[in-house]
Amino acid sequence: MTGRDEHRPGARELARRAMRAQVAEMALDLFLDNGYEQTTIDDICAAAGISRSTFFRYFPSKEDVFASETSAAVDELLVALRQRPDDETPWAALRHAMGPLVAHYATQSERAHRLAALARTTPALATLHQEKQVRFLGSIGPELARRFGTDPRDPADPRPRALIASALGCLEAAVAAWIAGNGTQELGRLLDRAMDAIGPDRPGS
User: Fold this and answer.
1) HSE value, Cβ hemisphere, 13 Å, CA-based, for 53
2) Residue 116 vs residues 87, 119, 146, 160, 178: alpha-carbon distances, Å
3) DSSP labels for the chain?
4) Which of 192, 202, 197 is CA-nearest to residue 94?
5) Residue 204 backbone class (left: φ over 0; alpha: ψ -120 to 50; beta: rest)
6) Which residues, other chains included, contact 47 with Cβ-Cβ below 8 Å and sequence gap of 6+?
7) Which of 40, 45, 84, 174 gets the highest tally of CB atoms within 10 A of its CB?
8) CB 35 within 8 A of CB 67
9) pLDDT value of position 109
10) How many CA atoms, within 13 angstroms, populate the side-chain half-sphere of residue 49?
C-alpha cells in the first residue's frame, strides 16, 4: 500500500461526506426559499429525511450548515496555493489560488449570488465572517509563512495574517460589488480590481 493510499478516505468516510453535502445542499435551498432565520433544524431534517440526532452528527449547529461551503473553499484554496510556483510572490500566488473559488461562483452564478446576498443581509450570519478568517489563517497561514521563509509557528510575524485579512477583504469587496450589480459583472475581474487597488508590487508582497 502506498502512502497515498493510506491517506485516501475509505468508503464509509466518502459516504459520510456525500451525505453531509446532500444535507447542506437541501438546507441551503431552504434558506434561499424561506429565509435563514425562518428555517428550523426540524425543517432541514424533514427535507433531508433524517432525524435531529443524525443532523447533529453532521453539523453542530444551523450556522455550520451555512459555513460548510466556506470549509470546502478553504480546502480547495490551500490545494491551489500549494500548486503555485515558489518564485511567485505570496500575494500573486494567493490571487491565482483563488481562481477555483471564483470559478465556482461563476458556474452557479444565480444561486451563489443569492447565497452571498443572504449572508450579507442576515444578522445571525455576521459572526461567520470572523470564523472564516480564523479558518483561512489556520489552514493557509502556514503555507504563506513558508513562502515568506519564516516559521509557520511564529505568531510574532504579522505578514501571513495581514495577507489573509487583505485578500478576504478584497473578496468581500468584490462580492459586495457583484451583489450590487445583480451578478451581471464578472466576479473575477472585480476581485482583480480590488486586489490591484492594494497593490501587487508593494514591498514584501
Assistant:
1) 0
2) 34, 5, 32, 26, 9
3) --HHHHTS--HHHHHHHHHHHHHHHHHHHHHHHH-TTT--HHHHHHHHT--HHHHHHH-SSHHHHHTHHHHHHHHHHHHHHHTS-TTS-HHHHHHHHTHHHHHHHHHTHHHHHHHHHHHHH-GGGTHHHHHHHHHHHHHHHHHHHHHHTS-TT-TT--HHHHHHHHHHHHHHHHHHHHHHTTT-S-HHHHHHHHHHHH-TTSTT-
4) 192
5) left
6) 26, 27, 29, 30
7) 174
8) no
9) 65
10) 2
In the structure grid, which three cell numbers stand for residue 167, read together?
A: 485578500
d(CA 133, CA 165): 7
* Terminal alpha carbon distance of the chain: 41
Q: How many CB atoms lie within 10 A of CB 199?
A: 10
Long-range pairs for 36-42: beta carbons < 8 A, 24 or more residues apart: 36/66, 36/118, 36/122, 36/124, 36/125, 37/122, 37/124
Residue ranges of the chain with pLDDT lower than 70? 1-9, 69-70, 106-109, 129-130, 199-205
Residue position matching grid coordinates 502506498 = 2
Query: What type of residue is 155?
Result: P
What is the spatial distance between Cα 89 and Cα 12, in angstroms, rounded to a whole number? Answer: 40
